[in-house]
Amino acid sequence: MTLLNWTGFLERLEHNQALALELATDLLSAIDVRTYKLSASIDAKDQKLIEQSSHALRGLLSPYGPTLLLLELKSIEESARSRTFYLETIPVEIISMITDLKSDVQIEVSALQNEFDRKNALKKVL
Amino acid sequence: MDRRKPVVLILDDVVENVRVLGSLLGRDKYSLLLASSGQQAIQLALSNIPDVLLLDVMVPDIDGISVCRYLKEFESFRFIPIIFLTANADPKDISLAYEAGGADYVLKPFHARELRVRVETHLEIKLMRDRLHTAEDLIRRAHQMALASQSSDGTLMPFVKELETFIKMPSRVSALEITNDN
């Protein structure tokens, strides 16, 4: 089952493909940094930071609709808020879901980019 | 005619979210003030009073609700619309946002059209309110001038009375007298 809801993402942007490309490209450049920040906060066992970084990662990913992943992140955020997050590292399922999502977004970005390139090439010919 | 762009202050500690908001609203339509902490939002807002504020509720240093509560203490912010951005649709949190002086809230993830319409609606309400305040000031001045130039035969008296009635009308719901006819 795919995590990415690209159709929902496009609908929220009123099918503005240029904006979708801009935002998804931004996501691809930010996702690793945000994941690292969550990982570092878990390493540091800093509950406040864990809460903030999982919240930030959830906010970053939410427009793309990965429901299961968002639920997992929310669960981390809530247990950190109640100061009961005890894991030593980010659960492997979360890392796996982030990798899958990233890969799916990358495919959509490449497709959009190709579409834009093709249109631009057509324009030049005409 | 004043053609300046409306100023929108955006508070979100996640820089990517701020960029998303800027893109969704349309950078050519608004002047954007971007803050990544509650403290920065307060400083920016006080030094350059915006037309509308979009505040993320959950911010590490000073949360959006506290920023709103603080700014609403200032007379100049009484009628500036503050819209909260939240991923949490819990009615308790939403009530808190309204009680702090918030005008509205938008749930994350944003829908471009919904966000734009809400911002535009609150900007329009603010514009109308600003015009109403200006009109009230003009009426007060007209009242004073009419009183001062009152002719001895009292021909201006009905107009003066009408102006007085308008001026005395409550301008806030809390000032309305609740009468119980039962």
Q: In words, what does this structure look like?
A:
The complex is a heterodimer of chains A (126) and B (182). Chain A is mainly alpha-helical. Chain A contains 5 helices and no strands. Chain A has helices spanning 6-12, 17-43, 47-61, 67-81, 92-125. In chain A, helix 2 runs antiparallel to helix 5 and helix 3 (47-61) packs antiparallel against helix 4. The longest helix of chain A has 34 residues, at 92-125. Chain A is elongated. Chain A starts with 5 loop residues before the first helix and ends with a helix. The mean pLDDT of chain A is 94. Chain B is an alpha/beta fold and 182 residues long. Chain B is 48% helix and 13% strand. Chain B has 6 helices and 5 strands. Chain B has helices spanning 15-25, 38-47, 64-71, 91-99, 112-148, 157-168, and strands at 7-11, 31-35, 52-56, 82-86, 104-107. In chain B, strands 2-1-3-4-5 form a 5-stranded parallel beta sheet, sandwiched between helices. In chain B, helix 2 packs parallel to helix 3. Chain B is elongated.
Brief synopsis:
With 126 residues, chain A is an all-alpha fold. Chain A has five helices and no strands. The radius of gyration of chain B is 21 Å and the shape is elongated.
Please state the CA-atom Rg of chain A, rounded to the nearest Å: 17 Å
Low-pLDDT segments of chain B: none
Helix content of chain B: 40-55%
Tell me the Rg of chain B in angstroms. Answer: 21 Å
Bulk shape of chain A = elongated
Distance between the termini of chain B: 52 Å
| Class derived from helix and strand content of chain B | alpha/beta
The assigned structural class of chain A equals: mainly alpha
* Strand percentage of chain B: 5-15%
How is the biggest beta sheet of chain B arranged?
Answer: 5 strands, parallel
The DSSP helix count of chain A reads 5
SSE order of chain B in H/E notation? EHEHEHEHEHH
Structural shape of chain B: elongated
Helical amount among residues of chain A, as a percent range?
Answer: over 70%
Whole-number average pLDDT of chain B? 86
Which sheet architecture does the biggest sheet of chain A show? Answer: none
Distance between the termini of chain A: 42 Å
Q: How many DSSP-defined strands of chain A?
A: 0
Topology pattern of chain A, helix = H, strand = E: HHHHH
Low-confidence stretches of chain A: none
